[in-house]
Design goal:
Alpha-Beta Plaits, 19% strand, 192 residues
Length: 192
């Protein structure tokens, strides 16, 4: 903006959709907005310049917030979001958390750290993983995290926006987990 329109007076808006609506309504002294082509269609606005973004692959994430309840059924192309709280900061603390995913073949698509502001070095980790809480490998990872973390906040399991099916590595499918459980049950009753 500063390079191409140095004299422009930039006004903040809560969203690009709101900015487009304000321009269409003629509210205030607004001459142009940065918004999607869809917003221009909805509000009958003229597009001055297309493709001004710096990353064609960028996407905006939206979430639906609801009271806790039973997770949606698995689709086979799911993500699960969690917030993980470390018990204490020590060398290898993050490795302990990541190991719970790695040994079960659970792929992370996003991890972000945030300070808790309780004490120096105290962090939470916001994580998106590929899979659904109802899948054995994801459920086992959550049980492992429950043991090594001070708290695990389950934010939900939901269909992936790209609808790409979850790929599991050999030894981590639900059928293989059931077979391993049967094997262990047989050992426990002396039938091996």
């Amino acid at each position: 903006m500063a390079k191409h329109l140095p004299a422009a007076n930039v006004l903040p808006a809560t969203s690009t959709a709101e900015a487009a609506a304000l321009l269409a309504a003629g509210e205030g002294r607004i001459d142009a907005v940065i918004a999607s082509g869809r917003a221009a269609e909805i509000h009958n606005l003229r597009v001055l310049i297309d493709d001004i973004g710096d990353n064609r692959e960028a996407t905006t994430r939206f979430i639906s917030v609801a009271k806790p309840g039973k997770p949606n059924p698995a689709t086979g192309a799911d993500k699960t979001s969690l917030v993980l709280y470390m018990k204490e900061n020590h060398p290898g603390a993050l490795l302990e958390i990541l190991t719970e995913f790695a040994v079960r073949g659970v792929d992370l698509s996003r991890i972000e750290s945030r300070p808790t502001k309780k004490s120096m070095g105290d962090y939470t980790f916001s994580v998106d993983l590929i899979g659904h809480v109802n899948e054995a490998r994801v459920g086992e990872a959550l049980m492992g995290l429950h043991r090594v973390c001070a708290d695990v906040r389950f934010l939900g399991s939901y269909p992936r926006h790209d609808n790409v099916a979850t790929v599991t590595k050999p030894g981590t499918t639900d059928a293989e987990h059931r077979e391993a459980e049967t094997w262990l049950d047989q050992i426990r009753i002396g039938d091996y």
